[in-house]
Amino acid sequence: MWRPSTLVQIFRVLQEKEEADDNTNGNENRPSLNGFGVGAFTLDWSTVATFLFSPLISPFVAIANVFVGYVLIMCVVIPVSYWGLNVYNAKTFRIFSSDLFTAQGREYNISTIVDRKFKLDIGQYEQQGRIHLSTFLLSLFGFGFPTIAST
């Protein structure tokens, strides 16, 4: 018989297996914590019940607006800019990452371009090259800052 505790262990094993892979193309379809998953999935009832009978419940229109925006950005804008348009040579980097990258797709080593006082060393920066961001992080900054500024 399938019990929730069994399912949680299965999901944990699947997640750990996917985290062990270090393949850029294979990592694109990970769960939402580490990849291009859609939304968060939980079996913890306390998390689900947090939104029930709360005095701070948002109106349905506000929730629907956030949901539609999330779906448009995560399921339309980011995939089109990554696979379709290859914006800023995006296929070189992981689609979902908060790391900084070199032009070759390797992780950027920040400690080499700053000195002990954490000031930028221009010579080392020019030697290592420009900093590149993932498609998700570019979209986060591109949509996030104007959204916050407009409210």
Automatic annotation (TrEMBL):
- GO biological-process terms attached to the record: peptide transport; protein transport
Enumerate the Pfam families for this protein: OPT (PF03169)
- Keyword Lyase attributed: no
Arranged from A to Z, the UniProt key words for this protein are: Membrane, Peptide transport, Protein transport, Transmembrane, Transmembrane helix, Transport
Topology in membrane: Multi-pass membrane protein
What GO CC annotations are associated with the protein?
membrane
Principal place where this protein is found?
A: membrane
Q: Where are the transmembrane segments?
A: 60-85
Keyword Protein biosynthesis, does the record have it?
no
InterPro entries linked? Oligpept_transpt (IPR004648), OPT (IPR004813)
Q: Where in the cell is it found?
A: Membrane
Q: Which PANTHER family does this UniProt record tie to the protein?
A: ISP4 LIKE PROTEIN
User: What family does this chain come from, according to its entry?
Assistant: Belongs to the oligopeptide OPT transporter (TC 2.A.67.1) family.
- Stated name of the protein: Amino acid transporter transmembrane domain-containing protein
Taxonomic lineage is: Eukaryota, Viridiplantae, Streptophyta, Embryophyta, Tracheophyta
